[in-house]
Fold this protein.
Amino acid sequence: MLDLGISKMALIGAVALIVIGPEKLPRVARTVGTLLGKAQRYVADVKAEVNRSMDLDELKKMKESMEDAGREVEKSIHSTQSDFEKEWSSVTTGLDNAGSTDDASSGTSHTWEPPPPSYKNPGKKWRLKRGSTPQWYKVRHGVRRQAQSGAARVARYRPKSQ
C-alpha cells in the first residue's frame, strides 16, 4: 500500500492549502473523507463476500464427505444385518420347533414386560405463584397483594356520604 508518514501528510496538506485555498479546503476534505470511507466499506464488503463464498465451498465439501461417510456406514450396517440374520436363522432353526412345544404345553408366554411407571406427586404447589416477600409482611405493612381495577379503587376510597 501507500507508505504515508507524518511528514508526507503535512506536505500534502500544505500543497492542498495553497492550491485549493483556505475557504474551500474543509469542504474538499469532507468530500475526500466520505469518498475514502465509501471505498473502504466497498472493499470490506467484497472481502466479506469472498470469505463467505470460500466458507460456503468448504461447507459443501464437508457436507459431501459426511454424506459419503453416512452412505458407507449404512451399507456396512445393511451387510452386517443381513449376515446376522443369516446366522440367526441358522442357529434358531432347531429351536423354533422346541420352543413352540414348550409354550403350547405350559400355556403361558415367557415374555416379560416391566410394569408401567406410577405417578408420583411432586409435592409442590406449582399453580400458586410464590413471591419473595412473605405474606405476613405484606399483611402487616399494607402492601397491595392483588391488582385492583380503577372503578374498584374509586369505590373503595370514595368518601362515604352521610
Observations:
- The helical segments are 6-20, 25-106, 135-141, 150-157.
- The mean pLDDT is 82.
